[in-house]
């Protein structure tokens, strides 16, 4: 089945490359490009939540840190975009280290409540520190990313730039979760006591997972800043974390493909329900409840469970024949 999985990923990449040929206008490219960026951030949240078992409610705040690092450096200090982009990842990861060593001493819902407070503090700092973040006005005029003579200032070029980073992000995440480090993360998720008994340093492992997670958020935020070229405090709102949580739940926690499908599919569902205006949540809400009740492991998680049961039944049938 490995070959089928491999070709499935190549098929998704081909679909991403071909989408602009099917899109009827630039608005659709913009919607999909933003979905790619939030998919990158969702992959990071899934690493700490789905693979390590720690629900970080400050994830949108870290995405905002990456975005504001780019905005402040490029607009206020005329730093080239790609240098600011790299520094956004560094700043977010370093901040994640210090917040991680404080918050990860807590477990379960205590950790989530603590990070919820951290996320709200980040939002308040961004909103109130006008001298640094420009306050509620936000940062305007962020330069478009450029590479030599190529400037990513059109919906099509920005779309392909976001797609490139998403492909690299998915490839890196698959390498992480498939490695010994990824298995260590899953061991901590399944049982912290057992993982510790087997010699795992819980604090170091969870902190490393947290840092990798917020690095993805910071990179997504930095890319978002160059994509929309304007940022405001709303990017740090906890609602974005809840959106990413919804993407994970619908797609499947603890998988790479699940959050990716959720992050790419759910924005389109909300777009197609816009004709209902404020009443669209009367459809959207019950649909989510239905998924949580009847597909608790998400779309991908449910499929993987079904495939595992089929493989077990075939194995038992072969043993019975022998």
UniProtKB/TrEMBL annotation:
Topology versus the membrane: Multi-pass membrane protein
CDD domains reported for this sequence: TM_PBP1_LivM_like
Main location class: membrane
Localisation per UniProt entry: Cell membrane
Organism: Ottowia beijingensis
GO CC term, one of those recorded: plasma membrane
Record's signal peptide: none
Keywords assigned: Cell membrane, Membrane, Transmembrane, Transmembrane helix
Source domain of life: Bacteria
UniProt GO MF annotations: branched-chain amino acid transmembrane transporter activity
Spans traversing the lipid bilayer: 7-23, 29-48, 55-75, 81-102, 109-126, 156-173, 208-227, 247-269, 281-306
UniProt-recorded name of the protein: Branched-chain amino acid ABC transporter permease
Transmembrane helix listed as a keyword: yes
């Amino acid at each position: 089945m490995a070959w089928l999985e491999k070709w499935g990923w190549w098929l998704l990449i081909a679909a991403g490359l071909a989408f602009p040929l099917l899109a009827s206008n630039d608005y659709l490219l913009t919607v999909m490009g933003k979905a790619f960026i939030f998919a990158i951030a969702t992959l990071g949240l899934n690493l700490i939540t789905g693979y390590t078992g720690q629900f970080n409610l400050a994830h949108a705040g870290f995405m905002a840190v990456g975005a504001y690092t780019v905005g402040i450096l490029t607009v206020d200090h005329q730093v080239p975009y790609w240098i600011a982009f790299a520094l956004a990842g560094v700043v977010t990861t370093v901040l994640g280290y210090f917040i991680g060593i404080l918050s990860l001493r807590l477990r379960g819902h205590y950790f989530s409540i603590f990070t919820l407070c951290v996320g709200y503090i980040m939002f308040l700092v961004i909103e109130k520190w006008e001298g640094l973040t420009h306050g509620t006005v936000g940062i305007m005029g962020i330069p478009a990313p450029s590479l030599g003579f190529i400037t990513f200032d059109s919906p099509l070029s920005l779309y392909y730039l976001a797609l490139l980073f998403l492909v690299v992000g998915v490839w890196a995440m698959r390498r992480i979760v498939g490695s010994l480090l990824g298995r260590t993360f899953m061991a901590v998720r399944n049982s912290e006591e057992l993982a510790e008994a087997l010699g795992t340093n819980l604090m170091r492992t969870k902190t490393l997972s947290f840092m990798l997670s917020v690095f993805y958020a910071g990179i997504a935020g930095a890319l978002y800043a160059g994509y929309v070229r304007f940022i405001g405090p709303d990017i740090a709102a906890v609602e974005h974390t809840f959106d990413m949580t919804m993407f994970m739940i619908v797609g499947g926690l603890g998988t790479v493909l699940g959050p990716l499908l959720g992050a790419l599919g759910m924005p389109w569902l909300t777009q197609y329900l816009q004709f209902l205006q404020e009443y669209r949540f009367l459809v959207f809400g019950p649909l989510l409840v239905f998924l949580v009740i009847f597909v608790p492991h998400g779309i991908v998680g449910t499929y993987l469970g079904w495939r595992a049961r089929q493989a077990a039944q075939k194995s038992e049938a072969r043993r019975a024949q022998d």
